[in-house]
Amino acid sequence: MTTKRGAALLNDPELNKGTAFTEAEREALGLRGLLPPRVMTQDEQVARILPGLRARPTPLDQYAYLVSLHDRNVTLFYRLVIEHLEELMPVLYTPTVGQACEEFGRVFRRSRGLYISAEDAGRVRDVLANWSHDDVRMIVVTDGERILGLGDLGANGMGIPIGKLMLYTACAGVSPERCLPITLDVGTDNTLLRESTAYIGLRQPRLRGAAYDALLTEFIDAVQERFPMACLQFEDFGNHNAFTLLEHWRDRICTFNDDIQGTASVTLGGLLSASRLTGIPLRDMRLLFLGAGEAGIGIGDLVVEEMVEEGMALEDARRRCWFVDSRGLVVRSRTDLPAHKQRYAHEHAPVQSLLEAVDSIRPHAIIGVSGQPSTFTPSVLAAMARYHERPIIMALSNPTSKAECTAREAYAGTEGRAVFASGSPFAPVTYKGRTHVPGQGNNAYIFPGVGLGVIVAGASRVTDSMFAAAARTLAAMVSEDDLAVGRIYPSLSHIRRVSHAIAIEVARIAYDQGLARHERPADLPAAVSAAMYEPVYRSLLGHTDHPAG
Predict the structure, then answer these.
(1) CB 317 within 8 A of CB 308
(2) Which entry of 78, 115, 164, 344 is annotated as an active-site residue?
(3) I need a surface site. Which of 87, 368, 376, 480 has the fewest CB within 10 A?
């Protein structure tokens, strides 16, 4: 039941049902005359809205249309998205969200989440107190320094936490009332943004050093006080801050970094699936990464952990992973390596180019996490095909404009033999009469299920073993039909089932490792199912739920 009436009720997106308010609700809640007379079912509303959405001329226009729907009617928004997730995922998130962030000032309509700025130092607790929901369980926070492959977008990066949390709800059923997007506006070093009249953030250079560290510490302490059961996900921080924050806080609070750990998990899942096509077990693969930042090192660390789990010695597992950064192959003789690269610096002669590295290392898989487009050149792809019957090509950089190669280039460059996956979606490719369906290594296969499992168990920490379990669970859900068309990830239409299975495994680990703050349920799968939000209208008069259709 609600105390809101009339226009106030229609203006509350969490309660508004639009034309689906029943006759009884319209009479009791002062809505008579404020709505057209016909009472519609939720199914009818979806059918009415979908053609208008599809008629929008560009993905960014569709994004703005969906955001507007969310601002009016949260329940209907999620019903629409869940029913058409495969179609709408690229609109709500990668690749469209990148453009939405670049043009955030133009598409901004209504404030979502919290903005905590450098000017709020000393009063972050007061800012968090302004949030209207107390039982927040999932927070996604960014400082906007490294948005996808687009760089420093400052406060415009808020599109990322908003989008990620939409996927928590759509893909895993985390209740939207338990989700909180936060942007830490510490300025931006993007001078074009600072000079733009449409920019919504602080027009000052990015805060760094001791002042930045103090603000982050104040923020994290305030979150623990205000939302003690919340999991804090770091998103799109610059490399240095991302590694530093994760290492400092991972054993102190419930937190993870999706760029490091989520990307690692979905990539590991793809490699485990790819091994079914290549016939080469993970422990026997040599991997060559283009890019040695958050994503690349995160993948390497989780792959190594999985190889060790399979019985390899730690140093032997690390020698299976090679990295190429902006200065060439990461080798032991280099003196310019930060700490996170040094454990993958092997004995080898200096190599400058990716092609030289492929010819020297002869990797079974090349994994692109560089943000540098078109770097998997025809020569590189041909070399991979020369050394292996089924070379694994993973062009994971986002958005599409930053992909190391396209799906068509990967198949054409390897005579149709590539096992291909990408970060952004690509359409099926027909090459020499055979149709290949590219897999999308989308973190949405991983982080929503991990988050749901953490919430169900009330986990106090998020561990790498949880991400390894998520990867194995994801790989196990790739069917023979998927593999037959070259796809190493399940269809996105099955993602809620995937998230459910991952949440069970994550919660089980939390209970087994003594990290759970909730009592262990007798039936864990049923408890996970019961925790999943379903976007159906509920009576505001204390009666039964509205029928869906």
Answers:
(1) yes
(2) 164
(3) 480
User: Does 199 lie in the same domain as 244?
Assistant: yes
For the record, the structure tokens of 65 come out as 């249309």
Cα angle value 368/371/377 (rounded, 5°): 55
State pTM to two decimals: 0.94
pLDDT digits 0-9 by tens, 307-343:
999 999 999 999 999 999 999 999 999 999 998 899 9
Under DSSP, the state recorded for 429 is E
Look at residue 398 in the predicted model and tell me its pLDDT: 87
Inter-residue contact 5 to 15 (CB < 8 Å): no
Average of per-residue pLDDT values in the chain? 95
Instruction: For residue 488, tell me if it sits in a domain.
Output: yes
Among candidate residues 63, 78, 93, 344, the one labeled active-site is 93
4 part of the active site: no
What is the CA angle 140-293-242, rounded to 5?
A: 35
Q: Give me the torsion for CA of 91, 95, 100, 103, rounded to 10°.
A: -140
Q: Residue 63 catalytic? A: no
**Domain extent at residue 61:** 6-90
Please give the angle made by the CA atoms of 211, 212 and 216, to the nearest 5 degrees: 120
